[in-house]
Amino acid sequence: MSQIESSGYKGEALRLLKLADCDIGDIIKVTSKGKVYEGILIPRSELGEGTSIIVKMKSGYNIGIQATADVKIEKVGKGTKPAFASPPIPEQNPALPHVVIMSTGGTIASRVDYRTGAVRSALSASDLYGVVPELSDVAQVDTEIVFSLYSENITQQHWTELAVTVAKRIEQGVDGVVIAHGTDTMAYTSAALSFALQNLPVPVILVGAQRSSDRPSSDAATNLIGAVKAAGEATFAEVGLAMHETVSDKAIVVHRGTKVRKCHTSRRDTFKSINGFPIAKVKDLQVTMQTGQYKRRDPSKKLILKPDFSDKVALVKFYPGLDPSIIDFYVDKGMKGILLEGSGLGHVSKFCFDSIKNAVDKGVVVALASQCIWGRVNMNVYDTGRDLLSFGVVPLDDMFPETGLVKLMWALGQTSDPQQAVKLFKTNIAGEFSPRTLPQEENLTEGGQ
Ligand code: GLU
After folding, report:
1. Of 285, 305, 325, which one is at a domain's C-terminal end?
2. What is the count of structural domains for the chain?
3. Does 113 lie in the same domain as 259?
4. N or C: which end of the chain has fewer CB within 10 A?
5. Which sequence positions are flagged as catalytic?
6. What is the Cα–Cα distance from 259 to 240, expressed in whole angstroms?
7. Is residue 435 one of the residues assigned to a domain?
8. What is the pTM of this model?
């Protein structure tokens, strides 16, 4: 069946291609302005104008030739259409630990889509297992698709669904769980699961990729192997997030779920532990713990599931000149919590004071984390901080804003009583507060043994 109608070509380009009886995958010769281009006709993004013809040249490069009336197209040969076939599932070794890989979407579960030219979420967890057959030397793998979403589309309801699904599998008895996830909001999900899944008997490890698995430069396989190895064998039992330690493929580190942040748009080592250290490292297929401070694996532990989150929580970033009516707006909208991302040690301008007092008076939990990210808020140093504390603003110690936001959503998902929520919020549940904040250089040295 011809793919040309649904291949993204429009207008003159579509007319010329149909006239020459060309289909996607055919070898074509295009003559334009005295030059001849020969290569494979590939589909174009449906989102573009669709008026240029895209040819994959022998060199591997794609070129676009504007389709004007004087352009000549000739079909030179029939080609094979690009397609994806699920690879076979490797055989299981019963001596290895039993790990479930759940997929939620994102680049790690994606491939380049030849219809739109973009990367799309298309691989199921079992496709992933087939694409990375080395996993069968590391664990007996079971797979499950929980959802297939770019992580920017994940909401509090998805966190709940995921937590419930993980809890079910753990209760059935597995040695570890790996969750393939889009990297954009993976650290929010790792924080959410850290609060929702307490007293874990086995590790739960999120993993992503910066490049999809059909690209030669993909980090999907190394990250996945590291995550599965740690989930099956590591001695800790916490929610972690496994990704490249550096830009090289040498080691995968597992960060604590509440202490990790995406810090770079595209690098493989985009995730960093903030105000903390990675808890484990996987190098040459060996798992080593990087700290003595962790919760131990113990299959006899009984998981405590607290999967509810409130979506009535807003994040307000302070900036010079912030209009305080933004805070009033959220209060009027019925928000139950507001996380302020303050400046420096924990400040917002005095022009916001009345709005903050009003919010607290109306029973809204107002908490504050520093937008500095590294370090700890100290609201006793300047009178601005002391004023905010006197209004009832809750300081977040060394939690960075995203973890603070997720924790506020979680605390308000457990109780509608603001005082109870504040009490929960101040309790260290999953290592989100560190007793002492070390400079990042020290973190790197200690973590990088
Ligand atoms: N934006 C997508 C996501 O977070 C793709 C990026 C990625 O997986 O790294 O799901």
Report:
1. 305
2. 3
3. yes
4. N
5. 107, 183-184, 262
6. 9
7. no
8. 0.82
Q: Is the same domain home to 173 and 218?
A: yes
Residue 48's domain comprises 3-77
Among 146, 186, 217, say which to mutate for ligand 1: greatest number of ligand atoms within 8 Å of CB.
186
Residue type, position 48, single letter: G
Cα→Cα distances 178→9, 20, 84, 104, 304, Å: 40, 50, 24, 11, 19
Distance 166 CA to ligand 1 centre (A): 21
Domain of residue 48, CATH code: 2.30.30.520
Shared domain for 200 and 149, answered yes or no, is: yes
- pLDDT tens track, the chain, 449 positions: 567 777 778 888 988 999 999 988 889 999 999 999 998 888 775 556 667 898 888 876 778 899 988 899 999 988 666 555 666 777 889 999 999 999 898 777 766 554 444 555 556 666 777 778 889 999 999 888 898 888 999 999 999 999 999 999 999 999 999 999 999 999 999 999 999 999 999 999 999 998 776 666 788 889 999 999 999 999 999 999 999 999 988 999 999 999 999 999 999 999 999 999 999 999 999 999 999 999 999 999 999 999 999 999 999 999 999 999 999 999 999 999 999 999 999 999 999 999 999 999 999 999 999 999 999 998 888 889 999 999 999 999 999 999 999 999 999 999 999 999 999 999 999 999 987 766 655 544 444 33
DSSP letter for each residue of 208-253? --SS-TTSTT--HHHHHHHHHHHHHH-SB-SEEEEEESSSSSSEEE
209: CA distance to ligand 1 center in Å?
Answer: 8
Please state the atom number of ligand 1 nearest to the C-alpha of residue 209: 9
The answer to whether 92 and 143 have CB atoms below 8 angstroms apart is no
- Shared domain check, 197 and 169: yes
Q: Is the CB of 152 under 6 A from ligand 1?
A: yes
The 3-state secondary structure of 272-324, one letter per residue? EECCCCCCEEEECCEEEECCCCCCECCCCCCCEECCCCCCCEEEEECCCCCCC
Ligand 1 neighbour 25 (Cβ under 6 A) = no
Structure tokens that stand for 265 in this block: 């748009």
For the domain that residue 221 is a member of, what is the CATH number?
A: 3.40.50.1170
From the CB of 106, is ligand 1 less than 6 Å away?
yes
